[in-house]
């Protein structure tokens, strides 16, 4: 049996109790899992501090000295802490314990030379170290020391139960000795040679017990590459299997509707990017495989018309399509826009939202079932069980980040039985559109089951939006500017942060803002609309309509207008408390202007006091209009986990690689994985035997990206 499969409690020094802790806290079940617990960082244990050298930097230090006094301090509520006075020849400090006091008290030796190690913090003039690691100087001297001592990921619970870094270090040493470091190679020789990688064994030894900086770097590179490489292998094989196995409806015909629209009714020439993306989608639709594609395009890049043209292809092949949007406003707008674009075509298009009347609803249900309805546009209402299609061939989902995985899978489930698939159901093609661009490599890793198309070009003639950052104290100047713009016939958005529609505070901010704006922009000269999440859908639509028709000059709103809203005459976007918004949200909001021929502006209003991150966000917005660049900064500020949401980034569960920092390695890994699978799709060549074994092993453990099926 493979030694690495041994349950962790059998490791000397672990036992059932610690084994249980390791399983629960760090998900370590077997020897092999412990080997893959990589240090977060390394610290220098060859350096010693004197007490009078300490500074309040919250960093880890080691100090040689003696405990000269011990006392227990009652803290109330039956709790107490243990405080030891520790001194060297330069001064004294305190060592403190809050847990396991009884046991520790018994083990402490007075007036014996010790080495203590831990984080120091300062309280008043006294430095203290909580729950330090301690060692007798004599023992410490004989232990092997390296300038790079690993610090392992841990949890409070582990620490409190005495499984601290030192203990984990010991376990690791024990593990290496029990297994004699017999770790077999997992990567094919060709790749090892091409990238000049060190062996698996050397990598594991040096990541846990680095001999020097250079070997550590090589070990980390090798392990990061391997981790990302296996993920890519998984992704790519999975994608191949999907294309192979999951049949889609082949849309073979480019017929009357598409051709007529393309030749006679395009309101403008498509950009090259739009043409390219259409071609990519058409290729997918025409093949036998089910399309599952992410269409990324910055705000205003013209995704809607691409969606329409795909739906026309569906119609040409006698299939129905649906377009699902995250809000009623947006669904309405899509319905109006698409109806307008397609008005010369003989196509039946309808709108279904939460506020669709029962009578209309009944007609829609009927027409969907008998197949006379070609395109249905709507909100979540589309995925209700009552909604049944005769033959749904294409599902378009707009502004993907607002929908969860679950909702996508509900659409997928509206599959139709198909004669071409022996009566088994065939899922519709899925096109997911998003204006929250994420770097392509990351997209491929996070949405492994989606192919990615990118519209990386804006329609011609757009004037870049000018963005400025103003402190609240300059409000009068800003208002003056708004009045000038309104005098020129333009319209203005003023947006308040309402991160959670339920938060009373935010709502109050909005209403206060509305009142003061009403005073500063009085009737009859100015008229103001207001839009927020607590309004009835019908009222929202009415306000939106008034603004879109130019009947009001100012739209005071919450982020309900964040996505998709299109009023070309609006040329100024004022964002209040801009520091409270994330970068992608700011970019989305800014995208509401700059849609017409006029020069547009975005004004970010903030308080004087800003955190470093907020400053970076404001500077980034002022510097660039490029959604991809903004996404990169966002990624750096927040990390991928935050951006994609826990659920989606969590599945990656990376042990050592970092999708942002190690993007170059990711690129390599992807490239080599594609190359390898092209030559040997099932990894059956003898030189790939070990690779396949490791691959199957990993796939068993981590089945990733099962979003849709
Ligand atoms: P988004 O990608 O943000 O959904 P839209 O599809 O709403 O963008 O398009 C934004 C605006 O650009 C719309 O008014 C649309 O009519 C216009 N548009 C789209 N494509 C082109 C093009 N190729 N040339 C000129 N205008 C275009
Ligand atoms: Mg859009």
UniProtKB/TrEMBL annotation:
InterPro entries: ATP-dep_DNA_helicase_RecG, DEAD/DEAH_box_helicase_dom, Helicase_ATP-bd, Helicase_C-like, NA-bd_OB-fold, P-loop_NTPase, RecG/Mfd, RecG_dom3_C. GO terms for biological process: DNA recombination; DNA repair. Residues 481-641 form the Helicase C-terminal domain. Belongs to the helicase family. RecG subfamily. This is ATP-dependent DNA helicase RecG. It holds the Pfam family RecG_wedge. It comes from the Bacteria. Plays a critical role in recombination and DNA repair. Helps process Holliday junction intermediates to mature products by catalyzing branch migration. Has replication fork regression activity, unwinds stalled or blocked replication forks to make a HJ that can be resolved. Has a DNA unwinding activity characteristic of a DNA helicase with 3'-5' polarity. One of its GO terms (molecular function) is DNA binding. Residues 284-455 form the Helicase ATP-binding domain. Coiled coil: none annotated. Keywords: ATP-binding, DNA damage, DNA recombination, DNA repair, DNA-binding, Helicase, Hydrolase, Isomerase, Nucleotide-binding. Its EC number is 5.6.2.4. It catalyses: Couples ATP hydrolysis with the unwinding of duplex DNA by translocating in the 3'-5' direction; ATP + H2O = ADP + phosphate + H(+). Transmembrane segments: none annotated.
């Amino acid at each position: 049996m493979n030694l690495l499969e041994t349950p962790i409690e059998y490791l000397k020094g672990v036992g059932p109790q610690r084994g249980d802790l390791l399983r629960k806290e760090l998900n370590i079940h077997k020897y092999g899992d412990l080997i893959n617990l990589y240090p977060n960082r390394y610290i220098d244990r060859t350096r010693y501090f004197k007490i009078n050298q300490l500074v309040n930097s919250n960093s880890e230090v080691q100090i040689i000295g003696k405990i000269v006094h011990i006392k227990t301090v009652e803290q109330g509520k039956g709790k107490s802490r243990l405080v030891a006075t520790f001194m060297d020849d330069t001064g004294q400090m305190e060592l403190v314990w809050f847990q396991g006091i009884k046991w520790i008290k018994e083990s402490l030796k007075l007036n014996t030379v010790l080495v203590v190690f831990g984080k120091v913090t300062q309280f008043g003039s006294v430095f203290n170290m909580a729950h330090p690691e301690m060692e007798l100087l004599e023992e410490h001297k004989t232990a092997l020391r390296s300038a790079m001592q690993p610090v392992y990921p841990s949890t409070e619970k582990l620490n409190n139960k005495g499984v601290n870094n030192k203990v984990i270090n010991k376990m690791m040493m024990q593990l290496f000795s029990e297994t004699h470091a017999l770790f077999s190679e997992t990567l094919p020789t060709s790749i090892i040679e091409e990238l000049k990688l060190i062996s698996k064994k050397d990598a594991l030894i040096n990541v846990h017990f680095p001999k020097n900086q250079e070997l550590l770097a090589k070990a980390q590179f090798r392990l990061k590459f391997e981790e990302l490489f296996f993920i890519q292998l998984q992704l790519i094989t999975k994608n191949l299997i999907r294309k192979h196995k999951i049949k889609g409806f082949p849309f073979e015909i480019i017929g009357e509707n598409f051709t007529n629209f393309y030749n006679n009714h395009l309101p403008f020439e498509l950009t090259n990017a739009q043409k390219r993306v259409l071609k990519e989608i058409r290729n997918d639709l025409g093949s036998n495989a089910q399309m599952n594609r992410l269409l990324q395009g910055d705000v205003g890049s013209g995704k809607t018309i691409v969606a329409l043209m795909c739906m026309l292809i569906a119609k040409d092949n006698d299939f129905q399509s649906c377009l699902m949007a995250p809000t009623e406003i947006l669904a309405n707008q899509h319905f109006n826009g698409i109806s307008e674009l397609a008005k010369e075509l003989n196509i039946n298009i309808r709108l279904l939202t939460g506020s669709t009347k029962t009578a209309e609803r009944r007609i829609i249900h009927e027409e969907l079932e008998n197949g006379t309805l070609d395109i249905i546009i709507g909100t979540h209402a589309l995925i209700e069980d009552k909604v049944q299609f005769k033959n749904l061939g294409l599902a378009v989902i707009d502004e993907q980040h607002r929908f969860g995985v679950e909702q996508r899978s509900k659409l997928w489930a509206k599959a139709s039985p198909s004669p071409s698939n022996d009566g088994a159901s065939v899922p519709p093609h899925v096109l997911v559109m998003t204006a929250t661009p994420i770097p392509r490599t990351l997209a491929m890793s996070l949405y492994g089951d989606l192919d990615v198309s990118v519209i990386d070009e804006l329609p011609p003639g757009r004037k870049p939006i000018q963005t400025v950052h103003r402190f609240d104290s300059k409000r009068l100047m800003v208002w003056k500017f708004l009045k000038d713009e309104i005098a020129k016939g333009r319209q203005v958005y003023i947006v308040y942060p309402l991160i959670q529609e339920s938060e009373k505070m935010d709502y109050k901010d909005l209403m206060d803002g509305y009142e003061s704006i009403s005073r500063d922009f009085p009737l009859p000269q100015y008229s103001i609309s207001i839009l927020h999440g607590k309004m009835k859908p019908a009222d929202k639509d009415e306000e939106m309509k008034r603004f879109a028709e130019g009947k009001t000059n100012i739209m005071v709103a919450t982020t309900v207008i964040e996505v998709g809203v299109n009023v070309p005459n609006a040329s100024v976007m004022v964002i209040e408390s801009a520091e409270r918004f994330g970068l992608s949200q700011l970019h989305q909001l800014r995208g509401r202007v700059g849609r017409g021929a006029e020069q547009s502006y975005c004004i970010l209003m903030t308080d004087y006091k800003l955190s470093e991150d907020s400053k970076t966000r404001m500077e980034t917005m002022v510097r660039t209009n490029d959604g991809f660049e903004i996404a990169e900064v966002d990624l750096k500020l927040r990390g991928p986990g935050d951006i994609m949401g826990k659920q989606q980034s969590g599945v990656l569960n990376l042990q050592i690689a970092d999708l942002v920092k190690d993007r170059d390695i990711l690129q390599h890994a992807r490239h080599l994985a594609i190359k390898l699978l092209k030559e040997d799709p099932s990894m059956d060549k003898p030189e790939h035997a070990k690779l396949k074994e490791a691959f199957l092993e990993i796939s068993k453990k981590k089945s990733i990206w099962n979003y849709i099926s």
